[in-house]
Protein: Short-chain dehydrogenase/reductase 3
Amino acid sequence: MKASVGETISLLLKIIYFYFESFYRLIVPPARQDVRGKKVLITGAGHGIGRELSLEFARLGASLILWDINKENNEDTADEVRRVGAIVHSYVCDVTGTAVSTETVHNIADRVRREVGNVDNAVNNAGILYGGPVLTMQEKHIRRTLEVNTLAHFWTVRRFLPPMLEANKGVIMNIATASAKSGTAFLVIYRPSKYAVFGFTEALREEIDRLGKPGVQATVVCPFFVDTGLCKGPGSRLSPILTPKETAVTAMDGMLRGEQEVYVPRRIWLQRWIGALLPEKVITHLKKFQQLGIDPQYNSKSD
Structure:
């Protein structure tokens, strides 16, 4: 159906308004949401970014629901959260996309709703990394990377998003990586799995908008290399490796201010847009100059 003149003018005015709004928000960020009393579920809460996110949410007064495949690590995080003074519920859960684990996600999600109630914020943080040359990567490692890093998001969102849509409030936060927007050698398996997370979040956000649920937020977080033990030899001549805590603090600040994409550190946002104007060969040589990348590796650790 052809757009009318009035519809076209209305669209142009909205575009102008949104440009001014974006510039204004660069100077005056939105106020942070209050998460006191909110129920926040975090996958991969046993260590690294997941643990730090749990502690940051606890300090802000949220109630925590912690999922991790490692019971000991998960309980350690739960104990730390309790010392902060927050309510916490911990569950051992394999979030991968195998038939057995998918059923496990469904069952534990049902337990959470019975024992805790509907989740207000769901953070998909669990992740795994197998780094190395693509030609020597084992098939089982390729499959597991996609199961943990990508498919798991579908299973958690499908279980926890419906009550958010019904109430027209809630947050889905997915942890991707800065390498999702720029390829890195020896991350040929990891990078596509996280690129899928970025695309998943974009599409989910648009679907939520089409459903007319503006109170439900979908945020994707793209951090630079983080010192979680996930990979060997991450580095850059110009950018220091992030700590899990500073990553969690920046991710939460962006999410609480309603940002759709959160880059850690923040300057990656500007680098991304400048990079979009540069020839590919320039970007390749800049990466070499920075000595950006990781060492080949064959063992894995999860987030």
